[in-house]
Design goal:
Largest sheet: 2 strands, antiparallel
Number of helices: 3
Number of domains: 2
Radius of gyration: 17 Å
Strand content: 15-25%
Helix content: 25-40%
Number of strands: 6
Structural class: alpha+beta
Order of helices and strands: HEEEEHEEH
Strand order of the largest sheet: 1-4
Distance between the termini: 58 Å
Amino acid sequence: MAAPRIAQPRYQAVHTRLQRDRGLASEHLCECGERASEWAYDHSDPEEKYDERGRPYSLNQAHYRPMCVPCHRRMDSGNGCRKGHPWTPENTYVYRGKRYCRKCRRAYMRQRRSSSDV
């Protein structure tokens, strides 16, 4: 007989399902171009959960990205954005309670404008 499913999966269960549904992180590349080794939560879920050790996680697999260890640690350190830009007052803006990187936003908008000009 199968074990009953709990209403809210715990941290480890979410990671097990992530690996089952999306494969090993090492089958993907990190954003930096290196081979990924871990699934990393991007901290963008408005319904973020915390396990008993205080680790944040999401029930939504769309909030996980394959990352190499250095990129994952840098992102989790809180010292900079996903691309490593520092969280300084000049480079940070807050929208709906979440902080965003101005440099990344400018790069995104430049790319978006250039692709729409084609």
